[in-house]
Inverse folding.
């Protein structure tokens, strides 16, 4: 039986040696896998940090762009408000012209736009009377009629069977507004 036991002991010894080699290899593989996993995790953290940093920088850049756009919009609104105030001031000054100047402006408007037989409506706050209006040479020349006083922002309103002409100061200034806005903006806001 000694032979059998020796064979069994040798098989067990070989098995133990083989098991130790396999165990050593498994431990080495586990250490290698752990090292690779740790390196991967570190690389992943670095990649995520870099990605997060890039996302943060992009978000900040977008927020800055939006803030700059909002600032430009606010400046544009402020400039438009200033230009609107300029036109409002012009209209206010025109509406309070003295009698002579007001009559002169109305006479020029009638000479340029009135047609024979037109009916004139005068702004109710005009600084002259119907009689003074009707004594103007152009009124007599074109046989214009007085239609009454209206709630106009200065100036006059003409009507006939074919057309109406709003020659109120508000309408005239409004029609020039688009044409003059750029020029006014340039003179107000361009720095030299």
């Amino acid at each position: 039986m000694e032979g059998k036991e020796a064979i069994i002991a040798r098989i067990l010894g070989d098995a133990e040696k083989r098991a130790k080699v396999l165990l050593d290899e498994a431990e080495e593989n586990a250490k290698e896998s752990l090292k690779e996993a740790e390196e991967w995790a570190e690389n992943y953290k670095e990649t995520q940090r870099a990605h997060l940093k890039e996302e943060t920088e992009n978000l900040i850049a977008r927020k800055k762009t939006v803030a700059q756009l909002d600032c430009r919009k606010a400046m544009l609104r402020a400039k438009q408000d200033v230009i609107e105030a300029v036109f409002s001031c012009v209209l206010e000054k025109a509406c309070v012209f003295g009698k002579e100047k007001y009559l002169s402006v109305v006479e020029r408007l009638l000479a340029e736009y009135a047609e024979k037989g037109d009916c004139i409506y005068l702004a109710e706050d005009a600084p002259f009377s119907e009689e003074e209006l009707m004594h103007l040479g152009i009124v007599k020349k074109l046989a214009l009629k007085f239609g009454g006083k209206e709630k106009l922002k200065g100036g006059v309103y003409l009507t006939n069977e074919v057309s109406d002409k709003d020659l109120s100061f508000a309408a005239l200034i409004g029609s020039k507004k688009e044409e003059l806005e750029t020029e006014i903006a340039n003179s107000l806001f361009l720095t030299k």
User: Anything to note?
Assistant: The mean pLDDT is 88.
